[in-house]
Amino acid sequence: MKTKAGARYLLRLDDANPWMRQAPWGRVEALCDQYGVQPVVAIVPHCEDPALRLEDEDENFWEKARRWQAKGWTIALHGFNHVLSGTGRGVVPLNDRTEFAGQPEAQQRIKIREGYQVLRENGLDPTVWIAPAHTFDRVTIRLLQEETEIRVISDGLARHAFTRWGMTWLPQQLWKPRQCPSGLWTICLHPTSDPETILDRLENFLKSTKLSSVSDALSQARPWGVSDAVFAWGFRAARRVKTWRRPRGKAAV
Ligand SMILES: [Zn+2]
């Protein structure tokens, strides 16, 4: 498998929390070490989502997260409790279940403030926002600017990093490793819930493909424009067809 010219990739690991499944996370970390990958890791500060609490609490979780940070992994704030009790689509309309989109400002503010504080108190410096289920709105963005130092969002449908609404966006379009045309592609994995075959696929991908760094990706951001809007429209249309063909498919959150 050859890397297509001009394609750059970031790896993102979602749903880290003290109750996550240790074995697949350990395998991903070993692969990252072996191939020199520094992923973005999305940490749930106060996880109350039963789908993500699958093992006994790891008392060393925060120490592990600090070790990730020391290795150059980028720490991302992944919501607050990851409970998708609301209905709303927000600015990246991939799902309609939400912890944030369309929710009252006061509630969003407390979750962002306290979630950020949990990570900071545990010695982490979160620099990226990742909304559970991709669902957040313009209010969420303003509150991130008011309550935190976070100015980067890992989300959005585009082929390049872009700036919009006072934030730099690293687009996220893939849920398993695969070769793509030129552009910046973020591969989002969920080690706790993905099947083992996805990690096999990651291993094969890393054998042939060198991943980019977050700092490089950020340095190439440009203002969001018409071509990005066209890409997002086409991506959503293609995804709708795919979902329609596989009605039992479950969207990753
Ligand atoms: Zn998640």
Number of domains: 1
Catalogue the ligands.
zinc ion
Main CATH class: Alpha Beta
Alpha-beta classification: alpha/beta
From the alpha carbons, calculate the radius of gyration and give it in angstroms.
Answer: 17 Å
Q: Looking across the biggest beta sheet, what order are the strands in?
A: 10-1-2-3-6-7-9-8-11
Whole-Å distance between the termini?
Answer: 29 Å
> What is the CATH homologous superfamily assignment?
Glycoside hydrolase/deacetylase
Poorly predicted tracts of residues: none
User: Sheet bearing the most strands, described?
Assistant: 9 strands, mixed
pLDDT average, as an integer? 92
Quick take:
This protein is an alpha/beta fold and 253 residues long.
Features:
alpha/beta; TIM Barrel; 253 residues; globular; two-stranded antiparallel ribbon; binds zinc ion
Topology:
Layout (H helix, E strand, L loop, with lengths): L6 E10 L5 H14 L4 E4 L17 H10 L3 E4 L8 E2 L9 E2 L6 H17 L6 E2 L8 H10 L4 E3 L7 E3 L2 E4 L12 E7 L6 H13 L5 H6 L2 E2 L2 H20 L8
Parallel strand pairs: 1-2, 1-10, 2-3, 3-6, 6-7, 7-9, 8-11
Antiparallel strand pairs: 4-5, 8-9
Helix pairs in contact: 1-5, 3-4
Bound molecules: zinc ion.
